[in-house]
User: What shape does this take?
Amino acid sequence: MALASGTRLGPYEIGAPLGAGGMGEVYRARDPRLGRDVAIKILPESFASEAGRLRRFEQEARAVAALNHPNILSVHDMGAHGGIQYIVTELLEGETLRERLNEGALAPRRATELAVQIAHGLSAAHDKGIVHRDLKPENIFITKDSRAKVLDFGLAKQPTALVSDDAATLATSVQTAEGMILGTVGYMAPEQISGKLVDHRTDIFAFGSVLYEMLSGRRAFRRNSSVETLAAILKEDPPEIVATGEHHVPPALERIVRRCLEKNPGQRFQSAKDLTFALENLSAGVSQQREPMTMSASKYRWRKMDFVLATVALAAAALAARGFIIHRQEPPEYRQVSSRSGYIPEARFGPDGQSVVYDAAWDHPPFKMYSSRLDGTELRDLGLPPSELLAVSHSGELAITLEGKTSFGEGDRLARVPLTGGAPRELLSGVFAADWSPDGSQLAVARAENGKCLVEYPIAKLLYETVGYVTDMRLSPQADAIAFLDHPILGDDRGSVALLDLNGRKRTLTNEWNGTLGLAWSPDGKEIWFTATSSGEDRALYAVSRSGKKRLVLRIPGEVQLEDIASDGRVLLERIARRYEVAVGQIGGAPRLLSWLQWMEARGVSRDGKFAVIGDMGTREKDYSVYLANLDGSPPLLLGRGAGGGISPDNKWVASILPTDTTKVIVLPTGVGETRMVTAPNFRYATADWTSDGRALVVRASESGRPLRFWRQSFDAEPPRAITPEGLGGKFLIFNHSDYVITRDSQGTPKLFPVDKGDPKSVLGLTRSEWVIGGAQESDTLYVTPDASAVPLQVLRVNLRTGIRKPFIAVLPADPTGIIAISDPIFTTDEKKYVFTQVRALSVLYVAAGLK
Assistant: This one.
């Protein structure tokens, strides 16, 4: 069914046709609500007329839409209009892999780069239980910025007749039970052809066929007819790539292809993550491969090289004959240290090198301090109050932080205590990170003061300051430098590896990573090892030299975090399974999860209680993603990029800040409208929310590198107006129809600063440890919690006019398994609903020997 330009299909305006195929016509279209161009695919009438097939398609489309992965085509919407079923996706500019392969094979380096991206996309889908079943070059798109996108998840399952073309699609049913065939001739796995059960390994076979074609320029199993092609897949192996391709293909890369194309699924890679791991480990070598020179370039030089190689081979043979053995590098060995189910934030080798000291929460917080032998025996509670570990000295003294945040969470109380036991001795507050000098006599610290993070060594000697924050501070074995992870934005784990000498000269050794956590020096002090990710995928272990030369040390499926390195080179690692989940609660009822991604955060809630602003912090996009979620559980709407903020009182706008460009606030429309920007000269923004009348933003920002403070910023030409003094943390809240920022002064006294002009007000009746998490918008009431780290989180209502304090609710986790933290709940105006973020984490400690 052809649609004329200008036709309205639901809210979309049809533009020019983009193409047609077995799955229907595709058009460019305009979404006037969000002011963006999209692609609309019109489903065939035969597809849409069968209720079962359509229902299955809708379920899978929703699942794919929730993936939001940069290597999978984004699904924005789906619907029906005038009997026409359609699906709305992002609009891509570029070409399909099939169009690119029509020009010939790809160079191994380029093929590997694309293959890694495709494997990442498959891995994300497989993690959600989604199997493509029809991966082929036609279903892979290469954008103009060289990004691979996998297309048509869930769309390739239409039944068609078998035709005499190896690009035809076979399908006798939309189901995937045994005895049913589904896929494309030439890329189908043997189990598909045989009508057996298929799973994610079926996609890995198809991936191998595609990669073979990328490297060789020829299809792996193409024969004169479809029947012969199917028989070849069942019984034959494709020719050697080096014999058919125009480029030199490294043997290791061909081995990966061969393993993907194993007839028996059990002999293939068992997951797309394993496949990605193999490709990424190879990619560094492939990127440095050079095409072999021909003999005609210099026959003499090549003959001379042959002579040298022959001499070396004879020498090696002679050494072997005399009893010398040339060893290959042995794989690392791993020993599990912890066995109890729980979460371990920090761990260090003990002074003797045969024990481990760590803090852990086995069921839920608080975190307590433990030590154990490397074999996991002699687990000992150190008998300390709730605390977290920072460092262990060679003389057996711990640097810890005691629970009980300082002003609005900016650092903790540092204390020192002997490993053998005793009472902690408090040193100073507001500490982010610390480490002992090699002789155990001094501490280097990173601490908060006046809105900045200060790096001091020894304590009170300033070496470096930042408006961001510092973690994982480690003194070198030679005590001549401090390495740390430098994070530019509070509350965000993106950052880079920095090296600071003892005169305060700082050098940044790496690019900025999307996520960094965990750092230690190599025993010789020549390298800094760290765990990081350049995307939303799992962290890997890297090393960087003092001169800035970086290398990959270890990448394994799952998230790994570096904890420590012993003097003999053994590495203390942690495997972590972690999720950030958003839940919606109702007073008097149990909370329920809204989460559909792995790293989500509740950023705001609408005044009427219908919508929540959700941030996706796990996307591989560097600037994250912002969603508008309906609290009734219906599918969320992707608004755009950034770390989302509050939603306007009329529900029409959401404030957002791009982590890669904090010079402006992006104002995203939730419906019809154009994206707007708010900025000011020399401003760097950290947070943004809306005043109660919706006429201005309340932002936390630094001006010209000065400490952060709160500002009121309108949408007209009026310059921003400061609300709080510099350097004070705080929280924006609305109570009794007025806008305030609540903070604590240098003496710890809580004060309310009016957003509109006025003098600050003292808040009586709050203790130093109590945490203000919000305000009732229609009464003189603050929401307060006595312990912000507790699970469940207890919330009180404190009336500022009368001083009366009453219990309000206990914020319980939705499914408490592994919950280690609950964020401040955000309440609706009627106080009947609230949204919050819960952090779920389980971890295991390992000691690795043999990592190089």
About this structure: Confidence is low (pLDDT under 50) at residues 155-182, 284-328, 405-410. The domain at 1-91 is CATH 3.30.200.20 (Phosphorylase Kinase; domain 1). The CA atoms of residues 10 and 406 lie 53 Å apart.
